[in-house]
Amino acid sequence: MYLLHTTNLTLKSFYAEIPKYAILSHTWNKEEATFQDIQDRGKDGWKEPAGWKKVEGACAQARKHRWDWIWIDSYCIDKSSSAELSENINSMYQLYEGAGVCYVYLSDDPRDARSDFRYSKWFTRGWTLQELIAPSASVVFLDRSWKEIGTRYSLRDVISAITSVPIGLLEDGDLAKYSIAQKMSWAAFRKTTRPEDRAYSLMGLFDICMPPIYGEGGAKAFMRLQQDI
Predict the structure, then answer these.
(1) Residue 45 reports pLDDT greater than 90
(2) What's the structural domain count of the chain?
(3) Same domain, yes or no, for 136 and 44?
């Protein structure tokens, strides 16, 4: 896996003895900094890409809590490699589960946890469901200025009301207590940019692996998911 160093903003690959790391959960904008943007940083002609402020903000937040490394999906996956993309999609749940802290960045959200918090786009996206549930450590919600709104635990009542994810699961993370139908219901109204991702984003919740095949269409991807389940 690639991790981003929070001080010098360079990527390093780890295959064993993975250091402790923070992880970011966020919604993608139309333009994001990419793996290649970070690899090219410092080279002649490099220009700050759109979305670079998010990279800097995430690293600053992690540094503040003494994290040397952070994993961010849009920057730490080399999407030019189909093998690496497949590996990361299949291990995504474990990546969030193994993080020392998960920062949830709500770029569209002000600080009032009782008003606009519930309308954040983050709660409507397919991939963020597992990013809410998977972390075994603290999940910290941050507003657009990187100021803390609250944690998964402190906001569990309102998060449960928004997502239909039971309060008990937000407290103990024990997915084994819940049926297939219950897990599917939590994802019923969530959306993904690519239709296949509606299925792929649920693999971790059911503890299964299957190769992503972009272009197969949402219906076929979901059929494969159901067969594996």
Answers:
(1) no
(2) 2
(3) yes
